[in-house]
Amino acid sequence: MKNFKLMLATLLMAFSSATFAASMTFELGNHEDGALYDGVTNPYGLRLDDSGQTFTVGDNLPATFTGASLFLTFDPDDLAAGAVLSGTIVDNANGGAWVVNYTLSDLTAAPNGGFIAQTGIGTLTEVGGTTVFDLIGKSNGTGAFIFDNDGHRLGTSDGWVGRGWVEGYGSANDFLVIATPVPLPGAIWMMGAAVIGLFGARRRR
Predict the structure, then answer these.
(1) pTM exceeds 0.85 for this model
(2) How many Å apart are CA 199 and CA 30, to the nearest integer?
(3) Close Cβ partners of 157 (under 8 Å, ≥ 6 residues apart)
(4) What are the tens digits of pLDDT across the range 164-195?
(5) Neighbouring residues of 196: CB distance < 8 A, sequence distance ≥ 6
(6) Contact 165, 147 (CB under 8 A)
């Protein structure tokens, strides 16, 4: 009985810790605001004015674009660790893939569970090509990147939205994306199943 209680307490502590202290990961997609279309047919989640390029982001790609996924990861309990955008996006003009590696830092809590980042640094690299754009966060009043469950420009009061501004490529270079939470890792669910299994084993005795 004592051993069972000890095992149960250990599993519950591990499960609780993994559930509430783990980083959150979101898959990003083009924002749904119709004003953000490039004037032809394609929505975009990133634009660089000087290069004349717009990029399609994430899981809501038009039918002509496939194979791109962009993710954002951060730990709401450890904002000092920063946040990371990583993955692949697609050039709307020619369908070419580009790799995003962008780290956000100097984070503070946003009102609805997200964050506000004051700085950002990284790269946007053409796959199979030679072009690399430096991504340097630019403050737009509040910060260089805001990510929050506030429905920004969605017409609702909630919904995860990320928006951020980038130096060096014109006056309105920006990310504007919606976000969908990625389910918790299977290991956490396995821990939960182990707890249930312990209860079942105890009842059979």
Answers:
(1) no
(2) 45
(3) 150, 151
(4) 999 876 566 899 999 999 986 644 433 444 44
(5) none
(6) no
